[in-house]
Each structure stands twice: as C-alpha cells, then as structure tokens.
Amino acid sequence: MRVPVAAANWKMNKTVGEALHFLELFLDGWEERSEAEVIIAAPFTALLPMRHTLGKRNIGLAGQNIFWEKEGAFTGEVSPDMLKDVGCTHVIVGHSERRRYFGETDETVNKKVAAALQGGLLPIMCIGETLEQRDAGKTLEIVESQMEKGLKGLNGEEIKGIIIAYEPVWAIGTGRNATPEQAQEVHAHIRELLAKTWGKELSAQTRVLYGGSVSPDNTLELMREVDIDGALVGGASLTPDSFKEIVFSAIKAKEV
Ligand code: PGA
To answer: How far is the CA of 12 from the centre of ligand 1 (A)?
Structure first.
C-alpha cells in the first residue's frame, strides 16, 4: 500500500509571520495521521522557523529548489546540506515555473535530483506537458522523455522514496484541472515506465502525485484513481482549512 501524500507548494508566498500563522491554524486540532503524509514546500526564509514550530510532528518540510554543488561561489543558491540543516525532508525539483522562468532543463533537473538524493533529501520531481504538446498528442512522449532524462544514471536503489509529480502545465494555476481520466492515463504510463526501467517493486512503491488546480472540490475524485497517490497543491494550499480538507479527502479516497 502506498501512503498518499498531500504536498503544499507555497511558491513565492508567505513571510515568516504568515507561515507561522498558517501553522497555528493548521495545527489547531490536528492529530497525527499515519494514513497520509503531509509535506509543505515553503520559501527558504520560512523553513527554519517552521521546523521549530512543527517540532517532532510528522509533517515534512520541503525546499522548492536546490543547487547540485555542495558549497562554494554560487551566489543565490542553496545546497542539499543547507536544506537538511533547516529540517527539510524533501525538495521540489523541476517545477514547470522553474523550467519556464529560470531556464531549468531535464539535464539540470537530473543533476538536482541526484544531488538531493546524495544529500539525503527526497526529491519531488515535477514533469508535465504544455497545452500545445497535449493538443499535438504528445503528452505521453513528453512525460516519458522528462522521466528518462530527469532520472538518468540513477538506479532503483538510489531513487527509492522519490516522489513524481505529474503537473500538466495548462492546469497549473488556471482553475482547469486535468480530469481524473486524463490524469490516470498519464500516471499509469509513468508507473509502467518506472517498472520497465527500475523494476516492478520500485514502481509499485513510488508515489506519483497529481498537481494542477487541485482543490478541496476535486481531490476526492482525482485521488480515487488507482495510480494517483496524492496531490501537489499550489493555490489551495495557502489557506489552512482548504489544505486540511485536501489532506482528509486524500485519506478518504484511499480508504478501503
Ligand atoms: P496550483 O499549482 O494548485 O495553484 O495549480 C500547483 C503547482 O504549481 O504545484
């Protein structure tokens, strides 16, 4: 059984004060839930104070980006060790906004994924097609190429625990989510690819999240699909109540 994941991607939102206020409300009445894994990808500046507030609670923290070198003259970058140091368990790699605005490529994604794993962080590797690519019938081809290049050179043992986030670019921040059927088709393909290249066991263990306009209203139907193991949530993760609802829907969807 794969434990479902509800991951918040706050992007460039929330000061330290706002992040802590979110936690105060989110944690109010919160009981540790083993049926789902909750991860919050916050801005770098908020990570350490959030870790202090979370204490030993079983809520993961993630960076939203990472650099592959260990240290040195790389102005503006943050290393795997630095993220570990502030209590991160995960890091988002290759988000489409980073690919679009900051020139990330499958090759740099590959270096970042490898460096994160090497540094003891679990990457949440984002992949997904643009609207043009979908309209041209190239979705599966694009996703396949992003998977192969992003995970190139890594063996099954190394990528154990990695999380894949399928985020169609046209669904991000648009209010237009992929239908459960559209997402399931791609997720099944991703799982097949994992099995083909890294083995059935790894494929059966790896969580594949859907992202793109996930909201409390559509989580349940998306997560009822057999190969959708959770959600990477942008806009709807910024308010504690709506993110909490998404966590509970994720649990509900996977109840047997
Ligand atoms: P959204 O963003 O939920 O606001 O569409 C998702 C993401 O970019 O990870």
So the answer is: 12
